[in-house]
Design a protein that fits this description.
Blueprint (H helix, E strand, L loop, with lengths): L11 E3 L11 E6 L9 H14 L8 E5 L3 H13 L2 E7 L4 H9 L3 E5 L4 H15 L4 E2 L8 H17 L6 E5 L4 H13 L4 E7 L28 E5 L1 H15 L5 H16 L5 E6 L26
Parallel strand pairs: 2-10, 3-4, 3-6, 4-5, 7-8, 7-10, 8-9
Antiparallel strand pairs: 1-2
């Protein structure tokens, strides 16, 4: 077995403690932090790079270059190290220290871009580099590459369908590139058109939910398919932070901020869902990538175990 063979087939974890307030409703989190580089992005990165090799676009001597907020970059760096390709990543300068270190330890180069421009600035910067030296790079273009949602159609959506015994009723996921949502939702709706697909978004253009996009105020990914959306649930940064802490303290799941946003949305959905509903969301990555972030310290330490559960 090689490291790439470990991508996918992640478990579903029941969030029983956090869902106690919703009798008859099951809330499940897909543990994507169990992928080898530690995030859901392993799936898309693997698919895009192998697709590039198969098509003869990624050849020895070329450098893999793309824009990233961190997790796809770590996945590219891992796969590049395993397959023998150089990797150059364009990312906002305020990306967490832990993710930058992981990327560098895996041998990849980081080109930092303006934190004020978020992931859109990184997207523009990598395209400028490609325009200057087009023959030097292989550009997976995770925001527009159909292999990205294709990976989630073939794996994530299929796994959710099978792991729930074909009983999933709701699927909720936040969106960065939108690949996870688009691919998994498309597969689930093909299996059962009654499955409701809910997009999770920050409630404001100015938010602290790393890896997610407020679609109304950003460069829209070409792979986004809004026809799959049955609803959109908006989550505040504070809700995402609190729910991330709750995952750790109430479920023993040390996950990242986008996971907190997803679970916050799933719990909102659970509050209006009928008994018998099975709600699946994505636990995108590990909280170990955000240890330096101050949100881990709650506003008040007294009573942190006293949430209504």
């Amino acid at each position: 077995m090689r490291i790439l063979d470990m991508v996918g087939n992640t478990p579903l974890i029941e969030l029983a403690n956090m869902a106690k307030a919703f009798p008859g409703v099951t809330v499940l989190g897909k543990a994507e932090f169990a992928n080898p580089s530690g995030s859901v992005k392993d799936r898309a990165a693997k698919a895009m790079l192998l697709d590039g090799i198969e098509k003869g676009l990624l050849t020895k001597g070329k450098t893999v270059a793309d824009a990233t907020s961190g997790n796809t970059g770590i996945a590219y760096a891992m796969i590049g190290a395993a397959l023998g390709y150089r990797v150059s990543l364009y990312m906002p300068a305020n990306t967490s220290m832990e993710r930058k270190r992981m990327i560098r330890y895996l041998g990849a180069e980081i080109v930092e871009t303006s934190p004020l421009e978020s992931s859109d600035g990184a997207f523009r910067a990598v395209r400028e580099a490609l325009a200057r030296e087009p023959g030097r790079y292989f550009y997976p273009d995770q925001y527009n590459n159909p292999a990205n949602p294709g990976a989630h159609y073939e794996t994530t959506g299929r796994e959710i369908w099978e792991q729930t015994g074909r009983s999933v009723t709701h699927f909720a996921a936040s969106m960065g590139t939108s690949g996870t949502f688009t691919g998994a939702a498309r597969r689930l709706k093909e299996e059962n058109p009654n499955v409701r697909a809910i997009a999770v978004q920050p409630d404001s253009p100015f938010h602290g939910i790393e890896g997610t996009k407020h679609m109304a105020s950003t460069i829209r990914p070409g792979i986004l398919d809004e026809s799959l959306q049955d609803d959109v649930v908006y989550v505040t940064t504070e809700e995402a932070y609190e729910t991330t802490r709750r995952l750790a303290l109430q479920e023993g799941i040390f996950a990242g901020i986008s996971s907190g946003a997803n679970v916050a949305a799933a719990l909102k959905i659970a509050g209006a869902a009928p008994a018998g509903s099975v709600i699946v969301t994505i636990l995108c990555d590990s909280g170990a990538r955000y240890l330096s972030d101050r949100f881990w310290d709650p506003p008040q330490t007294e009573g942190i175990f006293d949430w209504n559960i």
